[in-house]
Design goal:
alpha+beta; FAD/NAD(P)-binding domain; Alpha-Beta Plaits; 2 domains; six-stranded antiparallel beta sheet; five-stranded parallel beta sheet
């Protein structure tokens, strides 16, 4: 068994610690941010329950009072996709039970007429789910959580052809020895600076600035109202904006609008009256606005990027004895809600193979990197391509230009798949498997039956253009200046 130090206690670090400990490894989890409030769940909570009612009240304490500056995206929209639910079901079903007792909603995965039998997703405010997971991990035998401390450097052995990390230096001044150090530091990972200070070759990085500006607000259902169904993808594109609506725990939900960082009106929509006037005018979000009352301020997030970090270059592994998981390894714009699910999947694989780390620390890094590229890299690559297209759409929409529907065969095939999904069960199931990370687009859509149905639809000569925007850009601007 391995002695493991994990740097970072977000979803990736917490899941990694839990899964590793349950396989017999010893884990020290180092997390700069303090623990969540010691909120106690109440007794049951039903549909329509408001703040102050049992479970809902405890969840609200987590969502509103936990200061978690290390996760600046924590108050944006989140979901645990089918892949995340499956990982938890396989590794820690007690976590699912605890989340449900906290008021997290578990819903079947469906697209149109298609249902993925036996698969579910979890809807929650991020801080509610993460706080409960952290409490579970803190109680787990084999895990020692050091809150209020941080990894600030690495202990490295120069013996051998490739340097090997043998431990971590902490902000407190302590040194921790380890068979394996895991960087789970998220989007703000310190790994590049650790490598530089240790004299190691820099990790390889791919990087794309997305150019998006997010505005999110949380709501609670009004008594007697039902939430519209939550779907993945939860977004609707307009020429100049993207709008999200997604359910969460305890009859709460989030609404998000995304604009270009170059949109001159973006800051105007930090005003609650303008934010709600716009979302009330968009058909996708209007039913949600009508059903809810605000329970949060409007949270902003910019400097959105896609970034992939590899510890293996053309010369082989840069170093042994350390790997990165979750957002520290590769993170993507949250449009499709993949971040937590990819992090849990990554953590699961780490736990499955960590026994090999002490015996071949360099080879372990090489193999772990290969698995990451093979299983998670495709989702990074597809997000990069999608975001480049989305930014082009938003930038053109700023000046009232609608970009033509792409005519290349791959783009038309993908658009046709989404057009078929609402009424074709077979295609809908394929789309659902892709959306929830159970199958890559190539695997799902190369199935002869699926491909045949999509091609038959294309043969009818359908229009794949999006309907005209409502509100139009001119109407959007009039809302901004009203």
């Amino acid at each position: 068994m391995a002695e493991v130090v994990i740097a970072g206690g977000g979803f990736a670090g917490l899941a990694g610690a839990l899964f590793l400990a349950r396989r017999g490894h010893t884990v020290t989890l180092v997390e700069r941010d303090e623990a969540p409030p010691n909120a106690t769940p109440g007794v049951g909570v039903g549909v329509g329950a408001g703040a102050g009612a049992g479970v809902g009240a405890g969840a609200d304490v987590d969502a509103e009072q936990w200061k978690h500056p290390g996760a600046p995206q924590a108050r944006q929209s989140h979901a645990l996709l089918g892949r995340a639910h499956r990982v938890l079901l396989d590794e820690a079903p007690d976590v699912i039970e605890a989340l449900l007792s906290r008021g997290v909603h578990q819903i079947p995965i469906s697209v149109g007429a298609a249902v993925l039998e036996g698969e579910h997703m979890l809807l929650s405010r991020r801080l509610v789910a993460e706080a409960e997971l952290r409490r579970i991990v803190t109680r787990e035998p084999g895990v020692h959580v050091r809150a209020g401390d941080a990894v600030v450097g690495l202990c490295v052995s120069g013996i051998g052809e490739v340097p090997v990390v043998t431990g971590a230096q902490l902000l407190s001044g302590d040194l921790l020895t380890a068979d394996l150090v895991v960087d789970a530091g998220g989007r703000r990972s310190g790994l590049p600076s650790w490598f530089a200070a240790a004299g190691l070759r820099a990790p390889l990085e791919d990087h794309q600035e997305c150019g998006f500006f997010y505005l999110t607000r949380y709501y609670r259902l009004k008594p007697g109202c039902e939430a519209p169904p939550s779907r993945i993808p939860a977004s609707v594109p307009l020429d100049y904006a993207t709008v999200f609506a997604l359910g969460a725990d305890n009859d709460t939900f989030s609404l998000t609008m995304t604009l270009s960082v170059n949109d001159p009106h973006r800051k105007t929509f930090r005003r609650p009256d303008r934010f709600e006037a716009f979302l009330g005018a968009v058909p996708h979000s209007a039913p949600w606005i009508q059903a809810g009352v605000p329970i949060s301020d409007i949270s902003m997030m910019s400097r959105i990027e896609n970034r992939r970090r590899r510890l293996v270059d053309s010369g082989g592994p840069v170093v042994g004895g350390i790997v990165a998981i979750g957002d520290a390894a590769l993170h993507t714009n949250p449009t499709l809600g993949r971040g937590i699910s990819m992090a849990l999947w990554h953590a699961q694989h780490l736990a499955e193979v960590a026994h090999a780390a002490p015996h071949d620390p360099v080879g372990f890094v090489d193999q772990f990197s290969r698995w990451t590229d093979d299983h998670l890299g495709v989702w990074y690559d597809t997000q990069v391509a999608a975001d480049a297209t989305a930014l082009d759409r938003l930038e053109a929409g700023l000046v009232g230009i609608r970009l033509p529907t792409p005519e290349n065969p791959m783009a038309r095939f993908a658009a046709a798949a989404f057009a078929c999904a609402p009424h074709d069960e077979v295609v809908g199931r394929a789309v659902a498997r892709v959306a929830h990370l159970f199958a890559t687009p190539a695997a799902a859509f190369s199935d002869p039956v699926v491909a045949g149905r999509i091609n038959a639809f294309l043969a009818t000569g359908p229009s794949l253009a999006r309907p005209a925007d409502f509100p139009s850009r001119a109407e959007f601007e009039s809302i901004a200046v009203a």
